[in-house]
Write a sequence for this structure.
C-alpha cells in the first residue's frame, strides 16, 4: 500500500477514524487522569471534542478548506484542557497548510511542525510531559520521515512509534505522573487518535452513513430583540439526533414550553431553536427522546439590559461554580459561564439546562457517576467578547485555578485582545466563598469604585474569605475519583464526617473531621467564633445539597454569633455537588 497525497476526503476520513478511537477509549483516559487536576474527566472532554469535530465539519474543495471546517468545529465544541489543546493544534495546522488541491508528505509534515508554534503560543504556562510534548515530538519526527519517504503510510506508521515512545516518557518529565504511576491522559488520547488514523490507513475502510435532510420549519419566529423580552427569557439551541419518537413529538414539546421555534435539518440530526423560561424542563423531556448535544442557552433578558439598560460602567463575569442566587445575579447584571455536567451519555449546562433539584434526584439513580467539565474555549471567548462589546472595562471572577482551567482559559482570551480593559481574578475559592468574592466585586462596582481600585483590593478580599464545607459522606468523592475507595470505606466504617476547606492557593484542604454531624457543626461555629476575635464579619452565606433544614440551623447559630442574617441561603450548584454529594452544607464567610 502506498499513499502519496492527501486530499480533503482522505484527510477527513482519517480524522473520523482517529476521533472514534478516542471515543472508544474515553473510560480508560478518565481513569488515568491526574494532571492538571485529578478529576477523571479527560476522556469525556476529549470524546466531546471529537464528537463536535466530527458532527459539525464538512469536506471542502481542498484539504485546507476541509481542515478549516474541522478546526472551527473542534474549537467550538472543545472541552477541558486536552480538548482545547487538540482543537488549537488543528487550528494551527489549518493556518499553516498551503492552498493546494492535494498535499504531499513534505508539505504536510512541515505544516504539522509549524502548527506546534500556534499550540504553545496559545498557552500561558506550557507544561512538558503532556500532550504538548507528544504532539511536538511526533511532528518533528514526521518532518524527519518526509526526508526519507513520499509515502504517508510509512511516514505516519513510523512517526506513531515515536509518539508512543514519547507518551511512555511523560512520567519522566512530570513528577505527578510518576508519583501516580501513569502516563499523561491527554497525551494518551492523542496517541489513540493517531492509532485510529493509522489503523484506517491499514484497513482502508470507514463505515459512513448519509442522512436525508428535511426542510427547515419555523413557528412564531421572531429573532428581533429590539425590545425587552417580556414573555420568554432564554434563547435555547441544541442538536438532536437518534430520535426515538416522531418529529411531531419534538414540535409538541417545543410549543408547550416556548416560541420562536426552529427545527432545521432532518430526523437523524435536528437543530432546535427555542425561546423559553424553562430550558431545564425542555431538556428533561428531550433527553428521553433523543441524543442531545451542542447545548446553548443565552439570557435574552440580560443581553437586552446590557445593551439598552446597563446599570453600571464596569461589567462583571463569573462561572456557575460561583453560587449566587438569581436575584443577586439579576440585580448586579452578572454574566455567567456555565460548566458542563455529564450524566451517562447526557451533557447538561450547569444551572441552565439542569437545576440543582433535578440534579440531586439523578445523582443517586444514575448508572455512572456524573462528571463535570470546564466551559469550552469558544464559550469563554464568546462571553468575554460580548462583555467587551458592552463595557469599556470588565472584571471576571473565577473558581480557583487549582480546581478548574476556566481561569486560564479566560486569561488566555483576555491576553490576546483585551489586556488593558479586562481584569481576570483567580478567586482561589469555590461555590459559596467564590460567590462572596463575586458579590463583593459586584457591590464595589455598584458603589462606584474604579476598575483599578477593585483590582487592587481584590487580593485582600480573597484572603479574608473562607469556605467551610460540612460533608455528609465521602461516597460521592469516591465515585468521582477524588478520594480513594479504601479511604472512603474507612471513613464510612468509622462514621467520619470531614470538614473541607481550601488553602491559600485554592487547593482542597482537610480542615477537620468528626464522628457526628453535630460535632461538625460545633467545630465550624467555633472556627468562625475564633475568627471574629480579630476580624469583623462582612458577609456570610450558606449553600446546601438537599439539606435545607441543616442549612437553616447553621444560619440560626451564625446569626446569634454575628448579629446579622446570612446574605443568602441557596442550593449548591450541580458542578460542585457532583463531587461533594447530597447532604453537604457549605458555609462561606468573608471578613473586613
Amino acid at each position: 500500500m502506498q499513499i502519496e497525497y492527501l486530499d480533503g476526503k482522505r484527510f477527513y476520513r482519517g480524522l473520523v477514524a482517529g476521533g472514534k478511537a478516542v471515543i472508544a477509549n474515553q473510560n480508560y483516559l478518565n481513569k488515568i487522569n491526574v494532571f492538571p487536576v485529578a478529576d477523571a474527566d479527560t476522556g469525556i472532554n476529549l470524546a466531546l471534542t471529537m464528537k463536535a469535530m466530527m458532527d459539525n465539519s464538512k469536506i471542502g474543495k481542498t484539504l485546507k478548506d476541509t481542515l478549516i471546517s474541522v478546526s472551527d468545529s473542534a474549537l467550538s465544541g472543545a472541552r477541558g484542557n486536552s480538548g482545547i489543546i487538540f482543537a488549537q493544534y488543528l487550528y494551527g495546522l489549518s493556518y499553516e497548510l498551503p492552498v493546494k488541491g492535494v498535499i504531499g508528505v513534505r508539505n504536510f509534515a512541515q505544516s504539522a511542525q509549524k502548527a506546534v508554534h500556534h499550540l504553545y503560543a496559545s498557552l500561558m504556562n506550557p507544561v512538558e510531559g503532556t500532550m504538548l510534548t507528544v504532539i511536538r515530538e511526533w511532528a518533528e519526527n514526521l518532518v524527519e520521515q518526509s526526508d526519507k519517504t513520499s509515502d504517508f503510510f510509512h511516514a505516519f506508521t513510523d512517526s506513531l512509534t515515536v509518539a508512543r515512545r514519547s507518551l511512555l516518557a511523560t512520567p519522566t518529565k512530570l513528577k505527578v505522573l510518576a508519583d501516580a504511576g501513569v502516563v499523561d491522559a491527554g497525551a494518551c488520547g492523542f496517541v489513540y487518535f493517531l492509532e485510529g488514523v493509522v489503523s484506517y490507513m491499514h484497513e482502508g475502510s470507514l463505515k459512513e452513513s448519509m442522512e436525508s435532510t428535511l426542510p427547515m420549519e419555523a413557528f412564531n419566529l421572531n429573532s428581533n430583540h429590539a425590545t425587552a423580552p417580556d414573555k420568554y427569557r432564554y434563547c435555547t439551541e441544541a442538536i438532536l439526533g437518534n430520535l426515538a419518537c416522531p418529529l411531531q413529538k419534538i414540535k409538541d414539546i417545543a410549543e408547550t414550553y416556548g416560541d420562536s421555534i426552529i427545527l432545521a435539518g432532518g430526523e437523524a440530526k435536528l437543530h432546535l431553536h427555542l425561546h423559553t423560561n424553562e430550558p431545564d424542563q425542555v431538556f428533561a423531556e428531550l433527553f428521553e427522546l433523543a441524543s442531545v448535544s451542542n447545548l446553548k442557552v443565552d439570557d435574552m433578558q440580560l443581553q437586552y439590559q446590557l445593551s439598552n439598560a446597563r446599570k453600571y460602567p464596569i461589567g462583571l463575569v463569573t462561572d456557575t461554580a460561583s453560587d449566587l442566587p438569581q436575584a443577586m445575579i439579576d440585580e448586579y447584571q452578572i454574566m455567567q459561564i456555565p460548566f458542563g455536567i455529564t450524566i451517562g451519555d447526557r451533557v447538561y449546562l450547569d444551572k441552565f439546562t439542569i437545576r440543582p433539584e433535578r440534579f440531586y434526584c439523578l445523582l443517586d439513580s444514575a448508572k455512572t457517576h456524573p462528571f463535570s467539565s470546564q466551559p469550552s474555549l469558544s464559550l469563554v471567548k464568546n462571553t468575554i467578547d460580548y462583555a467587551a462589546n458592552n463595557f469599556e472595562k470588565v472584571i471576571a471572577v473565577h473558581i480557583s485555578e487549582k480546581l478548574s482551567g476556566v481561569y486560564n482559559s479566560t486569561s488566555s482570551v483576555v491576553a490576546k485582545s483585551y489586556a488593558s480593559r479586562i481584569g481576570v481574578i483567580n478567586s482561589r475559592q469555590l461555590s459559596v466563598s467564590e460567590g462572596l468574592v463575586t458579590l463583593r466585586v459586584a457591590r464595589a462596582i455598584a458603589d462606584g469604585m474604579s476598575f483599578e481600585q477593585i483590582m487592587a483590593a481584590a487580593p485582600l478580599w480573597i484572603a479574608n474569605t473562607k469556605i467551610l464545607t460540612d460533608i455528609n459522606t465521602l461516597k460521592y468523592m469516591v465515585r468521582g475519583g477524588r478520594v480513594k475507595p479504601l479511604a472512603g470505606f474507612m471513613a464510612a466504617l468509622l462514621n467520619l464526617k470531614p470538614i473541607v476547606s481550601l488553602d491559600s492557593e485554592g487547593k482542597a484542604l482537610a480542615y477537620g473531621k468528626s464522628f457526628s454531624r453535630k460535632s461538625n457543626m460545633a467545630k465550624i461555629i467555633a472556627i468562625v467564633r475564633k475568627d471574629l476575635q480579630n476580624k469583623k464579619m462582612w458577609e456570610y452565606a450558606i449553600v446546601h445539597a438537599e439539606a435545607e433544614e441543616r442549612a437553616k440551623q447553621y444560619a440560626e447559630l451564625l446569626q446569634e454569633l454575628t448579629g446579622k442574617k446570612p446574605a443568602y441561603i441557596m442550593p449548591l450548584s450541580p458542578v460542585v455537588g457532583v463531587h461533594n454529594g447530597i447532604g453537604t452544607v457549605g458555609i462561606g464567610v468573608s471578613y473586613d
